[in-house]
Write a structure and sequence with these properties.
heterodimer; A: about 700 residues; mainly alpha; Cytochrome C Oxidase, Chain A; Cytochrome Bc1 Complex, Chain D, domain 2; two-stranded antiparallel sheet; 25 helices; about 65% helix; about 5% strand; globular; B: mainly alpha; two-stranded antiparallel ribbon; elongated
Chain lengths: ~700, ~260
Amino acid sequence: MSVETFRYDNTIVKNFAFATILWGVVGMLVGLWIALEMVFPSLNLGLSFMTFGRLRPLHTNAVIFAFVGNAMFMGIYYSLQRLLKARMFSDFLSKIHFWGWQGIIVSAALTLPLGITTSKEYAELEWPIDIAIAVIWIVFGINLLGTIIRRRERHMYVAVWFYIATFFTVAMLHVVNSFELPVTFLKSYSVYAGVQDALVQWWYGHNAVAFFLTTPYLGMMYYFLPKAADRPVFSYRLSIVHFWALIFLYIWAGPHHLLYSALPDWVQSLGTVFSIMLIAPSWGGMLNGLLTLRGAWDRVRQDPILKMMVVAVTAYGMSTFEGPMMSLKSVNAISHFTDWTIGHVHIGALGWNGLLTFAILYWLIPRLFNTKLYSVKLANIHFWVSTLGIVFYAIPLYWAGITQSLMWKQFTADGFLQYPNFLETVIQIIPLYGIRAIGGALYLSGMFILVYNLMKTVKSGSLIAEEEDQAPALTTPAAALGKNELKHRWLERRPVQFFVWVVVAVAIGGIIEIVPMLIVKSNVPTISSVKPYTPLELEGRDVYVAEGCYTCHSQMVRPFRSETVRYGEYSKSGEFVYDHPFQWGSKRTGPDLHRIGGKYPDAWHYNHMIDPQAISPGTIMPSYPWLENNYLDTDVTAAKIRAMQKLGVPYEKGFDALAYDHMKNQGDEIVANLKLQGVSHAEWNTELIAIIAYLQRLGTDIKAK
Amino acid sequence: MVKEKDVLLDHNYDGIMELDNDMPPWWLYLFYITIAWAGLYFIYFHVFGIGDSQHVSYMKQMNLSYTEAGNGPGASGFGYQSPLYSNDIDMTPRLRKQLGQFIGNEISFSDLIIEAKRKASPDDLNKLNDIFPTSYVSASDFDDNSQTGNDIDWIALTDEASLTLGKNVWDKNCAVCHLPDGGGSIGPNMTDEYWIHGGGINDIIKIIKIGVPAKGMIPWNTTLSPDAIHQVSSYILTLQGTKPAKAKDRQGDLYQP
């Protein structure tokens, strides 16, 4: 057996590590800023690109795809080479992957604040960037699979299984969810409408959590935790069972984001039951992590890296128990649309992803630079500051979420809402938003400690760009199953078969849930009175999307007495058939808007957009004065109508040519109406008039008795 | 207690070893129980249909004696017939506005339809008859179950406690459009003697309850209790003649009690 000598590429790992740190600081900084905007809305400084609605997608994208994304690639590129005893398949592809990914992040940071967005959560980037993501992801996939094919280690370790599942599933999710019809270079409409769009989006959104924030991190945990603890993995069987159960079950759970919505009951129930079945597979990962530490707990007390890993894995276990609980309809009735959800995701993001990333960085950077960590003490301080930050972040939000939800639902003895004014329920929880911001600031300050500590570490050593290792080549073909081997062992020797089984496991759930929604008509009962938007309303809708109104306002009245009394009739799936994309939202910082149409006069909306504080003292909605001065690009309206026609919206043939006149008529009407109500300087072709037209239309297609 | 060397597998990945420990039994049982629960849940709601659908459980919230009925006219699926909205009459605010262009907006629903039908071409009339086959509830029919309060002759409250409560309601709900001092901005001036819908306590209570949706005054009968409406209406009358600095021009007719 000939022993081969080869070298690991550490430069690419270093690059991803540095990018992780840089984007981590940026993403958390934006997060802190928008947390403060919820206490002091004027912190957008009167600038359109600094409002919550535009920065919130930037925060989520930066943290998920820039911080966690780069950290994932750092962990994979380091561990994969060593687990397979092979250099990455292609240095050239590694470079394209790295720089392509950074280019995508920069383009996101430029477009999102400008209001260039598809409004689909965690998939907000417009179509040219979507294509770039798909291309770069494939580059990563070729590099990953190529390395696996050229490996010198016969068996694939559990970490590699998770990397394979990550690659394929994210590709599938991204491509299916991003089907959109371009109108201009930076504007497109989702090909799905209303309830179908919502289902596809949350199938994607939930599994972005599963296959972007969870599976690659479980893979990294399986490499770095035993390494850092110097202990064998607790149970190989547990790895097998929880891996396959996790990837098969996770993909079904998306509809739990749409409980008590217009989604058909049967799909909602699938979301609930698959979430409950996910508890054990998720905990399998936590158990295998924590039980691997048996015999090393004395060192956990000393070593900040192990401490961070323990808290990370525990946070993973907590949020994967909490998630299924929130998927029970009776709990979801309270938690949904409130800050509870925000608290929940941050246990995962700050605890699981954040702390595991920090632990890996502290372990990895000294090894890459052939030196020792500059200060263990500072790392310990970082551990405590960030753990405290998580506590200060999450508890106020749980408190706020439950408080506000109970206030929304409270009736008086006479049968009236106790808090009919939504604003009262917001003002009640603003102090808690303040404490949350303190938690966020603590966590960010921990990040700065990390930056300092690692900068010092890097300076004290020098990069081992090429690390030499030796292993025998794989010459004989994979052996048949041995007598005492588990059947799974056979599969671990065969990456192609393994890949096929992963594809089968992750494809089933989506197919069973989504396909019937697209083709079986009774799943979306039509309502004859629901008509397409007028051209002006369509333009107003695009303004609504661009400003990110959906980040604070839902358009989904749930079937509860407390909601129908507050907002009006509950929302029906047939009302959304022309909504490309859907705008149901996921959080109510402000009230639901689905039945806002006709509720207030045009002048109310006009004045409220320009200065919300004047109309609703104490509100945390920012002012939108620029809507009054921004003119609609009426040249593309016809193209938008044609795009909608292609998507099946039944505008009459040739309507695109009439769109401008129709739009002007409706705009003039609103301007005239505003004059009667005391607003004399409105112009019909401004964004403000368009958004009023849209808001006044919302929810009016089925009528009051 | 198993010894670690007895369960140590010969796996070695970059120095990482694996143990052949059994899966924790409690973990396995947890997994089995959740799978069983999932099956039962789905069967309960969707195979035998014992559990209430989302719509039925909503109807039961709204009406304790509700029982599931068949599909009525205008039901939008699942035997649906809303207590608040009705689909059998496809009259939307938008459509109403379009019809209103013929004859002005200041008109009741039923009159609007009758007028629209009268002025429509034979073709349009057929369409209208298709959409609006049923007779309409007119504004004066709205008085059933004391919704408008016309069945009671109200007397304005004058005691300090009630007026303070009334002012609270005003500040929270009304001041946004009528201004805190009642001078009017989006909504009309409440301090002068000119009223669009009458200036007596009964008129005011009625308008607060049923609103003037076409002009943006929302009905408050689902938000404010009858007592609160009585109190705020009484408070509004105390604003008469206060002459705020920035009062809106008069609208409507001079009201003489």
